[in-house]
Amino acid sequence: MGQNGLRGEGTRQRVPQAGDLGWDDSLYGNGGARIPGSRTAPDIEQDEPGGGTESGDAAAETGGHRRGGPRRGGKRGKRRILRWIAGTVSVLILGTAGAGYLYYEHLNSNIRKGERTSAKGGAQKSAPNAAGQTPLNVLLIGSDSRNTDENLKLGGSKKSVGSPPLADVQMLLHVSADRKNASVVSIPRDTTVEIPACTDPKDGKEYAATRDLINASLGRGGPGCTLATWEQLTGIYIDHWMMVDFAGVVDMADAIGGAKVCVKQNIHDRPTARVPGGSGLKLTRGTHEIQGKQALQWLRTRHAFESDFGRSKAQHMYMNSVIRKLKEQNAFTDTGQLMDLAETATKSLQVSEEIGTVKKLFDLGMTLKDVPTGRIAMLTMPRIPDPADDNHVLPAPGEADRLWGLLRDDVPVDGKGQTSKPKKPAAPKDPAADPADIGIMVRNGTGAGGQLPTQGRARTVAGVLVQKGFAGAKSDSTLNPQEKTQVLFPSTDLEGDAYTAAKALGIPTSALKKSTDVSGVTLVVGADWRSGDAYPKAEPSTAPPKNTETVMGDELGCMDVYEPYRWS
Prior knowledge:
The structure is a single chain. This protein has 568 residues and is an alpha/beta fold. The chain has helices spanning 54-61, 73-110, 149-154, 223-234, 246-256, 292-300, 308-328, 335-348, 358-366, 399-408, 457-467, 495-505; strands at 112-114, 136-143, 167-175, 182-186, 192-195, 198-199, 206-207, 210-213, 240-244, 259-263, 267-268, 282-283, 286-290, 349-352, 376-380, 383-386, 389-395, 439-445, 472-479, 486-489, 512-514, 521-526, 550-552. The strands form seven sheets. Strands 1-14-9-2-3-4-15-23 form an eight-stranded mixed β-sheet, with helices on both faces. The chain has a five-stranded mixed β-sheet with strand order 19-18-22-20-21, with helices on one face. Strands 5-8 form a two-stranded antiparallel sheet. It is globular, with a radius of gyration of 33 Å. Residues 1-71 have low confidence and may be disordered.
């Protein structure tokens, strides 16, 4: 190695001092006195006595000489200027870095966090694709809480103050493992589902499992209970949740700067003689750019769009418009706009704790940066009327299950085909025992979804397993209602046994789940397998699900307005 540029230093490294960095001692406000322990860099000449005085400068101008040779005041002056510049730059750099750190900590302190899930168990994370990537699933929750003055002013009755909040908007954002397509699926707030037992992380209050509307899950253990309800219903592992209230929607809409929406007729969502309430949204026919309170009105409008399903469609149109605008404005790379959005987002959103830093939220936002808008599909869960109450709905048998299966298997729901080749799930590393030596308990879970259980279902499936060589298969009289069939195992040393049993019956590996709620391999026959000896194969078609509508990200679209809410 050659020598460095400092005289007398050779190749030896030393800790730089203030003088080495070009900092002028006078910057410390000590009248030019040297700081104890500091020393001057050896390659910077010191001013000699009289240097820099008016007489010295005059001598230079008249050709005068200094002691020891010609005067070099010009070089010395330049060095002083360079030292001053270097010192100023150093202070600015350190000051900016400090300010940046403080601002980063300020943003982090804005973020409100909570537990990812409030229930035991849950779905299994998807296997990585051939490139080692996994899909990203984020549950987006809109709370109707009126428990702040700001939220109360934006909508609702004073009677609702103090009541548990409801999750009136619920959307699952699924971004494919290769980040080349995305889906957003809404579940209507009036969908009847099984809500698992949850524990509120704030006060430790425990809520027993129940059957209720899905929007009630938020008040039974917070966002983590809503996430657990989705996982139980869909079998999809959900990585994170994000929640926003009325005031947060308004602030975020303002920070984004507006989004384009369209209506085919003049609209005024107001109380009528037969139906009270309304969002207050009033627009003329055509395209409008809305933000702030008007954006909240659009997202809350239900009656003028005829139903919750119409409202979901309008919300999807708004979200697509926001994504298009952010892409058009290069907001994903525009530092100034990112800072504005970060300030607002960290104040407006509540998030699950594992994404509770600015960096993690930024990384999360970047997942949508490269997804083409033409491969972003938004739709509402296929549904049927609830026989117990015409005002409520149930997931449509077959079509809703197929939608969940597409998302679990990371298959695009827009019908345009795969964007990358999925990796086949690998068999467990734990070797399975001989089928005759595997003990399996079979339970009847076919009574989920408001249906009566299929009589003797556990006994029938246990008999099928015995015929296939699983002599230790037995039925359990316990009814364990659940939508999806699952094969549970308590520890990794039994995963191979569970895998072998599932394979024998044609049950997909996505149905395998490690659970401490069981003591051995346990097969729960769900409502998706009410008859037959082999698990029903999923429909191979990748076409969008039926009994719903799909809004694509590259389309503006216009909403139809229900006749009673049109005006002229």
